[in-house]
Every structure is written in structure tokens, then in C-alpha cells.
Sequence to fold (238 residues):
Amino acid sequence: MSIRLEFINLIIPRKIIEKKYTGGWKQCLLDRQVSIDCGSNWYDDHLFRTGAMNAMDIECMLTDLEGMGFKPYKGRGKDLKWNDVCVVDTSSGKPTLQCDWIEIRDGKASLKGTQSKHKKRIRGTAVVIRENKVLLVKDRGKKKFSLPGGGTNRNEPSLSAAIRELYEELDMSARKAERIFKCDFLGSFNKHKVSLIETDDEPFLKSRELEEFCWWNMKDQIPRYAHVDYIIKQLGIF
Fold:
């Protein structure tokens, strides 16, 4: 598994949090629940990510962690490295100091030795149709549109992930949702598990992860990922 990167990232291994955070991993989740719900903190099986938009805020976070007993650094001078934590600047795509335990690839971070090059992420993918148009979204910094959705959390059904992502990213609550197994698509990085979702809400860019949305009439030529055409053709509406 891996975690996405955004702005300036402060990343901590969960095993370090369990050992050094006051109250352990469970207390960390409780303390950060609002930030997790708002989409500014997230985690996978191995790493926890928080962050900020400027270096001063990151320094304040590091000071707070040191007060709990975390040791952010090891070594001195030119040999200074990240130790219990790692700061990754998305603009450069790499840690601000050398870090022995992190791997960065395709804008995502993983704990070294845990990421399989061939393992694809399971993605809960949502199809929302209204007035013969399909809702599409574009991730920040990307050039192509995709169907809404996102990776499943541990033990989370793909239908639940599609409903959750639609709400977290676009503030749209599902009125009705159904898994459409015939539309599932195996992409280069994702296993798309598709759900057809009905909602009465209008989309709103709630998550900073998204840059744009559109209602596509399936006729205009817009840049889009391959899964879009495959999935809506399987639905018989393209």
C-alpha cells in the first residue's frame, strides 16, 4: 500500500506512533479524527500522513512531536537524516533530508519493502448519471478526467468506498447505490470496482485533491482515462 502526497508532508511509521505517541495509535486516530474526516490527514497499513502548506507549520509539528519523545533526526551536519519521521516536499518529490525507510514513487510514499511493484490498488469507482450526462472529476495536477472514487480502506467494501469518496470529495450523499460487477475494470494501477450511485445533491469541490468536475455528455472530446469509456460502454449508455 502507499499514501498520496500533497504540499509539504510529515510522514510517520505507524509502529513508531504506537510506541511513542501518548496513548498509541488508537489515541492518535482519536486526536486526528476531525483532520482525517476533512481529508487533511490520511494513512495506510504502515504510514500516517499529516502536513501543511508552509515550512513554519511543519516545524511546529516537529516540535510538538519532540515533546512526546519522538526523535525526528539522527546524525549531524552533512550526515543528518530523518529518523522517526520524514518530511517530503511534493514540489521536489523527495524527502527534504535522507530517509532510510521511505520509498517515493509516482507521487506516493510507502514504507520501504512493503510496496509490491505488481500489486494494484482496489478502487471504489462511482458512476453518477444525470440527464444523460456522466459525472467526471480531475485530480489536481492531472490532465485527464476520471470517474469519481478512490482506494478502499482496510476491510472496506468497494461499494462503501465509492459512497464515502463521493461524499468526501464532492459532498454528495448516496440515495441509492448498487454494485455493477460487469463494469469492473483492471487498469494499470487500479482495480476498478464499479458502483452505480443515485444522489440528489449537486457536486461541490470539497476535497483539495480534486481540481475540477464536469457533467460529460459522452459526445464532447475531453481528455479522459481508459476506464471511463470501458465502464460506461459496459453500462450500455455510451
Residues 41 and 50 are 5 Å apart (CA to CA). The longest strand covers residues 190-198. Residues 121-235 form a domain with the Nucleoside Triphosphate Pyrophosphohydrolase fold (CATH 3.90.79.10).
